[in-house]
Amino acid sequence: MALNLCSPTELNSIFFTDPFNSNRLTPKLSGGLSLRRKECGGTVSRRRVSCSVQSQPPPAWPGRAIPELGNKTWEGPKPISIVGSTGSIGTQTLDIVAENPDKFKVVALAAGSNITLLVDQVKRFKPQLVAVRNESLIAELEEALKDVEQKPEIIPGEQGVIEVARHPDAVTVVTGIVGCAGLKPTVAAIEAGKDIALANKETLIAGGPFVLPLAQKHNVKILPADSEHSAIFQCIQGLPEGALRRIILTASGGAFRDWPVEKLKDVKVADALKHPNWSMGKKITVDSATLFNKGLEVIEAHYLFGADYDDIDIVIHPQSIIHSMIETQDSSVLAQLGWPDMRLPILYTLSWPDRVYCSEVTWPRLDLCKLGSLTFKAPDNVKYPSMNLAYAAGRAGGTMTGVLSAANEKAVEMFLDEKICYLDIFKVVELTCEKHQNELLTAPSLEEIIHYDLWARKFAASLQSSLSFTPIPA
Q: What are the extents of the domains in the chain?
């Protein structure tokens, strides 16, 4: 797939073989990236891609999900660890624990630098182990906890986060830490045989080729904690092997779903941050506007469920009530519906295969009659070139998907800082992926995955000076 950008502020067109079903193409990046690869073996230099068919890692979850009866290994509430306890995923997980103390208990917490919130969490949930990635804050944490009767063990730095992830008493580890910083703790948890409640996208988008064979080796379940993949996971419960035909990811369409493509050259930062449905962080709001969030979810769905890219589609669903759907071999379509609430998918990763009762006070029930109607439309590939970039990177596999994600993250950062314009986000990602072609590794080590994540961010940043950005007046 080639983006034909004549200037940083003008998006011309994308050329397809089949204009009616672009998601099912085998597109190329503009540098001629071959999208079918295979494992070549050897060292870094010898594994640079010159192959035509890619071997795929095993899926994180098979095409069916059957509860393993009689496999419970703990007494009382289920013990969990949380990596990233002071972030959005971590705090929502603790809300669930607080509401269900008979179902879950916290044995270990890891945070970055929010000591005030971490201290409150320690006092309330009484974990055995606590880690702080920012080692300079350990003394502050110890001082704040000096009067706590049941003091936890405190381990500083990255090693502390890893110890939280592989705590011997934990059955499930919630991975809420952002970025490639979440890879090493997740790997440690898998090696320790812990099931993963997955909320860190880099685990699969960047680390899939390394993480998935490891999870299979240790017989570890990776359960998705984001709403779209949780919806798919819920819909495949009990399906017989081979019954899954197609995955349908729903997208809100973001800030520009009703904009004509011609206006995108005039987008300002404030425009991209006006999500039509809800308030989120700046980065994810921009990703929703560009639809990069959905492109990355396509890659995650491929790794999670083993679906071919030809069998993963995207549909715009403005109401965001249907969180995603599946189609079975007999053409039945199953969907999971609910008010947008991240706590539900998080809860299901913790309770699976059980369902936990939720009160109507804190978990409002869906009333379709009050809602009125649900609508759908096909995404515009010209408005959202991110989709075909993601499909192309996904088909390339290996380190390309991690490079795509890292380049997008850096490009969004530069856009928010008003160093590049909105349409430059797509150009930066495309050029970074194109540059990576000669370095693409199909079966990277963990160190190589992290290396190319850092490389992609650096290369993407270097493109700023070549884009001739002129600020758009407010």
A: 78-241+337-361
Q: What is the three-class DSSP state of 247? A: strand
Q: Average pLDDT, stretch 283-297?
A: 94
Q: What is the mean pLDDT of the chain?
A: 86
403 token code pair: 């490079």
Question: Alpha carbon 256 to chain centroid distance?
Answer: 22
pLDDT, tens digit (0-9, with 9 covering 90-100), for 57-87: 889 877 777 777 767 888 899 999 999 999 9
**In the beta sheet, which residues pair with residue 224?**
198
CA 469 to each of CA 264, 273, 283, 455: distance values in angstroms, whole numbers, following the listed order: 15, 20, 20, 23
Name the residue with tokens 């379940």. 221
374, two tokens: 């649900």
Q: Which of 64, 65, 40 minimizes the C-alpha distance to 51?
A: 40
| pLDDT attached to residue 180 | 81
How far apart CA 448 and CA 46 sit, in angstroms, is 14
For position 202, what pLDDT does the model report? Answer: 87
**CB 338 within 8 Å of CB 321:** yes
Q: Burial, 154: exposed, middle or buried (Cβ in 10 Å; 0-12, 13-18, 19+)?
A: middle
Amino acid identity, residue 333? Answer: V
Tokens of residue 460, six digits: 């993407």
Euclidean distance between CA atoms 57 and 215, whole angstroms: 11
CATH number of the domain at 78-241+337-361, please? 3.40.50.720
Residue 348 is encoded by which pair of tokens? 């299901």
Phi, psi angle pair for 237, to nearest 5°: -55, 125
**pLDDT: is 34 or 176 the higher one?**
176
Q: Is the pLDDT of residue 228 over 80?
A: yes
The residues, ordered by sequence, that sit 6+ positions from 279 with a Cβ below 8 Å of its Cβ are none
User: What is the pTM for the complete model shown?
Assistant: 0.87
Please, which contacts does 157-160 make with residues 24 or more away whose CB atoms are closer than 8 Å? 157/131, 157/132, 157/133, 158/133, 158/184, 160/110, 160/130, 160/131, 160/132, 160/133
Cα Rg, the chain, nearest whole Å: 22
Q: Where are the beta strands (DSSP E) in 379-429?
A: none
Model pLDDT for residues 306-363, shown as the tens digit of each residue: 999 999 999 999 999 999 999 999 999 999 999 989 999 999 999 999 999 998 888 8
Measured between alpha carbons, how far is 315 from 196 in angstroms, rounded to an integer? 28
